[in-house]
Amino acid sequence: MTRYLLFAFLLIATSLASQAQSSLYMPRDVQQAYKNGTRSPDGQPAGKYWQSKARYNITITATPPSRTIQGTEEIVYFNNSPEPIQYPTFRLLLNIHKPGALRAGNQDEDYLTSGVHIDHFTVDGQPQTWPDPNGFVLHRVKLPQPVKPGDSVKFTFNWHYDLSITSNREGVIDSTTFYLAYFYPRIAVNDDISGWDRSNFDDLHEFYSDFNDYTVTIKVPANFVVWGTGTLQQPETLLQPAVAKRFKESFTSDAVIPIATKADVAAKNVTTQNAVNAWQFKATNIPDMAFGISDHFVWDAGSTIVDDATGRRASVQAAYNDTTKDYPHMVGFARNALQWFSRNWPGIPYPYEKTTIFQGYAGMEYPMMVNDETYGEDTALARLVAEHEIAHTYMPFYMGINETRFGFMDEAWATSFEYLIGHAANAEVADRAFKEFRVAPFVKDPAAEFEIPIITPGTAVTGSGLRANQYGKAALGYLAVKDLLGDATFKKCLQGYMKLWNGKHPIPWDFFNTFNRLSGRNLNWFWNNWYFTFNHIDVAVKSVTKTSTGYTLTINNVGGFAIPLDVQIVYADGSKETLHQTPAIWQKNQQLATVAIKTSKAITSLLLDGNIFMDTNEADNMWKAPVKK
Ligand SMILES: [Zn+2]
């Protein structure tokens, strides 16, 4: 009996230990989603998965140099949740500019405005008092009656706000060039994990949006061109005939066509000469809309095939100040990026009809739009930043990522794709740039902030630790699993995950579990190692011993991260050999790995080189054979 009990205890203990090995920490909100049947533990949306949707019809009036923007909108919101809605949350993102708003960083006076003023608000046609006009980003509104599951509700807003003079993601570019983003009152995401998104916008943590349908009309005076998200309606009524003709040609041309030159702008030859032109853009199933307007920017355009199977082309446009040195190359850079991302990594055809790179002061992505500063003569940096922002088309926009909580599901992919496209062009330059900008900042600094597990919700992390977790550290995790699986399996998993969750709201567990399922391997040891631990990068040569077939190299994993590495060997005869080791060497024992080196030659020295997986302590990565006396 005693023996039997002991055996039973051992059995339970063993199974618990193996469970700990094979399962990931799972917060209660995720467990609940599995229990409710909205998500499946194999990484797929389950039968009861839901997400809501809105249809926006927005009209904006801008009359630069006045910084006041007037807007009206109608939102039809469809409640696809299983619960009635009585208290929806609205987000007025530009209230970030109000004095007293809770921001992640300091701002100068030119950043401040009086925020968003709601002048009129109705629910299903009934005027309502806008609650809390002195509030900030989040507004919880009580509806006269609940919206039942499957029902819709109509909101209308009249509002106005002043653009901030200090411009980053949006604002005044110059007195008659504006960038309009986050400009309309929006209903927050309500999802199966967190309910209403009530995370504050602090200008550091990014966004979370449903997939909505938009019609946006921007009214501007003659000679102002509007670039933006969506299909421009009836361009021939807005542009003068010669410009309209060139614009139309650009949709089928591989060449970079100057749509509006400096001479065209000076001669007022670009837009139709009405007192006011109404530029209308439409897009469906898209997370957001953004626009740039200017009366003096020049305009280039071309297009390229992004889907070899169907021959579908995407338009590539750039709008910029004629004095810049890098922007005249921008259509070429962006066209190359669309082709490369569509055909290589992630290898999914660029999903939109166009992209426009607009010269502003940010390095920021929006669906079909990029707002990048000019880098002067540094065309390499201008190109890298544009590639990064265009890569965001896939994550967060194609995938509906909650960037606020899971920024690493967004930024780290853009960072990985930025590295891969750069690497294809020039491996050495890409490695150097990636190490310098993306890895060194957190590897060279022993601060504990850099060792916070990547899975930690972004809402609980800030500053440099957040940056490392979202960008370089998590990107190394993605690049490590690419090395572990090999390109073919990695691509199958990545594309499978993207197709499964396109237009939805995946969370990290959906990603991990989908990769496990599609690779046919339980990678939880790897996910746990990279995303759920306090690890850092530090490997060390423990020993090199002679065997009958060559040598056995034993490596200590001091930092813990399961990195790939090259063993660079120099033999006594002067010859060299590089043995690549994938992260698989850490699967059995994450502290210690052995590598069998088959050779009949004598080794003089040996180096563990992680390349972009930069080691925090390189001093113990080298081994030298003892000199014979
Ligand atoms: Zn980014």
From TrEMBL:
Keyword Signal found: yes
Domain Peptidase M1 membrane alanine aminopeptidase: 377-530
Keyword Ribonucleoprotein (UniProt): no
Gene3D superfamilies given in the database record: Neutral Protease Domain 2
Record's keyword terms, sorted: Signal
UniProt cross-references to CDD domains, sorted A to Z: M1_APN_like
GO MF annotations in UniProt: metallopeptidase activity; zinc ion binding
Pfam families to which the protein is assigned, alphabetical: Peptidase_M1
InterPro entries: Peptidase_M1_dom (IPR014782), Peptidase_M4/M1_CTD_sf (IPR027268)
Signal peptide: 1-20
Name assigned to this protein: M1 family peptidase
Species the sequence originates in: Paraflavitalea soli
Lineage per the UniProt record: Bacteria, Pseudomonadati, Bacteroidota, Chitinophagia, Chitinophagales
